[in-house]
Design goal:
CATH topology of the domain at 86-163: Phage tail protein beta-alpha-beta fold
CATH class of the domain at 86-163: Alpha Beta
Signal peptide: 1-22
InterPro entries: DotD, DotD_sf
Keywords: Lipoprotein, Signal
Protein name: DotD/TraH family lipoprotein
Order of helices and strands: HHEHEEHEE
CATH superfamily of the domain at 86-163: DotD protein
Shape: elongated
Helix content: 40-55%
Structural class: alpha+beta
Distance between the termini: 109 Å
Radius of gyration: 34 Å
CATH architecture of the domain at 86-163: 3-Layer(bab) Sandwich
Number of strands: 5
Largest sheet: 3 strands, mixed
Number of helices: 4
Length: 171
C-alpha cells in the first residue's frame, strides 16, 4: 500500500509537469517596440531651443563687453585678507549680480547692491582656474566699465556693486 501511494504521488507530479509544460509556447517573448519613457512634446522642445538661444545671446554679450574693455595690466593685490586670497575656479557667463553674490558668499562676506539695477542685466564672462577671489572680483569690475563698480570692504566684510546712475538712452 505504501508503494501504491508513492507511485500515485509520482504519477501526479509527472502529470502536472506534463500538463504545465504544454502551456508553454517554447519560444521566448521578444518585445519589438521598446517603451519610451517620455517623448518630448512640442512645448518642451521650444523651451529648450529658447534656452539655448538665450545662452548663446549671453555669451555674445559677454564677448562684446570684453572687447569693449580689453585686458588691462594690473598688479596683484598683496595685502588682501586670507579669505579674499582663497583660490577658486569659476566658469560663468551671465548676470553680474549672481556671480558677485556667489563670490562674496565663498569669501564669507555680505553682498549689497547700491543704486538702480539696470533693466537689461549686466552680463559678465568669467573663466578662471585657481585664482584668488579678489582677482576675480577685479576682473568683474573691469568688465563692468562705466556701468558699475565693485567695492570690497574687508573691515566690514562686505562686497558691493555700485551701479552708475542712468544718464540717458544708451546709459
Amino acid at each position: 500500500m505504501f508503494r501504491s501511494s508513492r507511485s500515485l504521488c509520482t504519477l501526479t507530479v509527472l502529470a502536472s509537469a506534463v500538463l504545465l509544460g504544454a502551456c508553454s509556447t517554447g519560444t521566448p517573448i521578444l518585445k519589438r517596440n521598446p517603451q519610451v519613457a517620455a517623448s518630448p512634446d512640442k512645448v518642451s522642445a521650444q523651451l529648450a531651443e529658447a534656452a539655448d538661444r538665450a545662452s548663446v545671446a549671453l555669451e555674445t554679450l559677454a564677448a562684446v563687453e570684453q572687447a569693449r574693455s580689453p585686458g588691462i595690466a594690473v598688479a596683484p593685490i598683496e595685502n588682501a585678507p586670507p579669505e579674499l586670497r582663497r583660490a577658486i575656479t569659476v566658469n560663468w557667463v551671465g548676470p553680474v549680480d549672481v556671480v558677485t553674490r556667489t563670490l562674496a558668499d565663498r569669501a564669507g562676506y555680505a553682498f549689497n547692491i547700491i543704486g538702480n539695477t539696470p533693466v537689461t542685466p549686466v552680463v559678465v564672462s568669467i573663466d578662471v582656474e585657481n585664482k584668488p577671489v579678489i582677482d576675480v572680483l577685479r576682473n568683474i569690475g573691469l568688465q563692468l566699465g562705466m556701468r558699475a563698480d565693485i567695492r570690497v570692504d574687508a573691515t566690514r566684510r562686505l562686497v558691493e556693486i555700485h551701479y552708475a546712475p542712468n544718464t540717458g538712452v544708451g546709459g
